[in-house]
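Section 5.1 Outputs to date
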Amino acid sequence: MKTKLLFTIAIVFCVFASHSQVLKGKVADNQKLPVEYAQVFHAKSGTHVHTDSEGLFQLNNIAEGDTIKVNFFGFEEEVVVVQYPNEMLFIVLTEKVFSLEAVEVSQGIDALNLFTEIDIQTNPVNNSQEFLRKVPGLFIGQHAGGGKAEQIFLRGFDIDHGTDISIMVDDMPVNMVSHAHGQGYADLHFLIPEAVEKIDFGKGPYNAGKGNFATAGYVGFQTKDRLQESMVKLEAGQFNSSRMLGMFSLLDNQNQSAYIAADFISTDGPFESPQNFGRTNLMAKYSARLNDGGSVSVLLSHFTSQWDASGQIPQRLIDDGTISRFGAVDDTEGGKTGRSNVALNYTKNINDQSFIRNSVYYSLYNFELYSDFTFFLEDSINGDQIRQKENRNIYGAKSELNHYFKMGENTNLFQVAAGLRNDKSVDNELSHTANRETTLNNIKLGNIDETNYFGYINTEFNFGKWVINPALRYDYFLCQYNDDLITEYNSQTAEAGIISPKLNVLYNASKNLQLYLKNGRGFHSNDTRVVVPQNGKEILPAAYGSDLGFIWKPTRNIVINAAAWYLFLEQEFVYVGDAGVVEASGKTERTGVDFSWRNQLNSWLFLNADVNYTLARAAGVAEGENYIPLAPDLTATGGLSVIHPNGFYGGANFRYLKNRPANEDNSIVATGYTVVDMNTGYRFRRVDLGFSIENVLDTEWNETQFATESRLQNETESVEEIHFTPGTPFFMKANVSYRF
């Protein structure tokens, strides 16, 4: 009897095994690009998996005749009846009219990216400044004629140009360490808006793959691998503003693609002294799918920019009527900069469970900036104009192994990576100049050689609805500085390392609700010119953070994110431009609340809103003297967007920044603002006509502000007060594009 039972079980098993197999497949979009994190659902068993970065998936116990459903944000659901379980299944998704109803809250660590995906679909990026504004709660300001990197605000930080946010493009870092104009300087102007495919972001120091500067958060931009259509575009507007864009597909088949893009911009701006601003962007990208399922892409880009600037002006000259808001004290400010990039990304499949992602990059960079912050405070004869200048080579590489493994019915992830980055800044200079022509004396001059070696281990363990994500990162810095202003050659060095543990916990209550608790340690590095003379003191002060929040879809047309968070910095840095030093300003604490709302009101009308509050204070400092200068405590953005099936589109958006302290005791206040922008257009066949208005209400607002001590040529005593760059007044421009 026992023998018969075993024999019967064996027959049943053999029959089942002959009909139930492991199904392997690949999901792509209508541009033949792999779709990552698409949900593949097995109707019979109720189980599901997600596609990897190459669009690949694997389902167990699939038999002939089983039904497979594939869903992904922005695409029609694809239903497939399996006919040959032992053969590779290729599934192509079809794009559909955007609908929040189809959105599901991701089960992944990076579920917050859902909000930038929604925003790009409902309100596409049209200029370089809008790149960073797509990150909920992030504000920017320009204060040097449009050519310098923007000043960034996020989570109660005046980040300056990148001290506490990591920015990358196709895995290539944008931030500059030990830059002539400030630590972490991140100029994103080499990126063409229409070439961006995806914006990845995260707040806090919780991502093992992000190292230096990723304290308040990080932003990663991914460029398109291929063009759906070629395009030419012309823009023209007030203040002698114009833009020409061309994007041309050169190669487009199932396995290969290539395109080139060129972007030319010029404007005089609203200032009484014309900006004479000009920018040129050139870009090319080649992508290929390999026979083993891997992929390779090569990005080439070149960017140059030059401009004049009116600089920051003191409030007292506006109050007494000496100059207008768009006047200048020293209109010889300005500069020029350029960057050429090569970025190679290569993904190699090892087996069904493992692949290696590799990246290599090189950048050739130059920068020259003339500024005048204090006028005649230091030099009553020639004035206080300074020049900041450098030439830089950057190269780096990273290799990351990804391995998926089973524990019971759950698929888990193990990542291990190693990499390096080297910056060589030659003739890194700060000089006292006059009229942008004469060099009066060098304040700092030398060569910087800074190398960052790093590695990390990142894991994701799935336990039903729970995801546990422990990770560990290590960074080692070797800094060398050769000071050209000393008579004897002296190559000074400093080194330091830091370990950054992370622990993130997710609970996926349903496909419409994710709860999360994120914890981590991060850091921002100090300037080599500062730490080397100090024998390595305070090279890598740490940041400690926690986020507790949720992403929730309470109805079919509403998505919400809310989080309470805390961040502690061992040392905050303030760059003093006219002295060429980074000052340590002590420990700081920030506590805040983030709230984001996305709502589809009907088939063509969308609502978005973001509100962010932060209490930012210096730690261990007396009450009333512990304000952090220029740290915003309350910001809000929101708007309505229209995408009508008949071709009409448009939107109106506002951004609000509350008054904030400009100095430590809040005796000087940086005035807040509310600015409203709008755009509209119409698409018919291959032609797109549109126009936009920045500051549609013509609000008088200060884009950037600083509490600065300065002295004018006719003054006997210096004055400390707000110095500001005026925000753009009513500014209308029109555009026309043709796709082919």
